[in-house]
Design a protein that fits this description.
With 126 residues, the chain is mainly beta. The chain is 0% helix and 48% strand. It has no helices and 11 strands. Strands 2, 4, 5, 6, 9, 10 and 11 form a 7-stranded mixed sheet that branches. A 4-stranded antiparallel sheet has the order 1-3-8-7, with no helix packed on it. A hairpin with a 6-residue loop joins strand 7 and strand 8. It is globular and about 40 Å long.
């Protein structure tokens, strides 16, 4: 069974950059679509970004488009990274990586993903 571990530096100032990593054990994420979701306090889980397993197509929430980038680690097929630039206080949330085989219409749907990381807190504050 695939197990995901999401990690990354958890505190940044506005305008700074962070990279989150999603590492897999018990398998490879190469055959799965991988997404990042986030949940801010008192808010619902929301989609951030995803990368398809078959063609590498990427998808982003409007709130992060142009600032965040999702990519597979070419040297390590068991990892996917989320590069977050120009961070803003509203990016503060617990970030979760997830793996599954969603179709295009469900790429942003949490229920389309089978495996989830434990979550990593990201705080953006001056």
């Amino acid at each position: 069974q695939l197990q995901l571990v999401d990690a990354g530096r958890d505190l940044a100032r506005p305008g700074a950059s962070l990279t989150l990593s999603c590492a897999a054990s018990g398998g490879t994420v190469n055959s799965y679509g991988v997404a990042w979701f986030r949940q801010a306090p008192v808010e619902e889980l929301s989609f951030v970004a995803a990368i398809r397993w078959n063609n590498g197509a990427t998808y982003y929430a409007d709130s992060v488009k142009g600032r965040f980038s999702i990519a597979r680690n070419r040297a390590n097929s068991a990892a996917v990274h989320l590069q977050m630039n120009s961070l803003q206080p509203e990016d503060t949330a617990v970030y979760y990586c997830a793996a599954g085989r969603p179709i295009t219409s469900t790429i942003a749907t949490p229920g389309a993903y089978y495996y989830w990381g434990q979550g990593t807190q990201v705080t953006v504050s001056s």
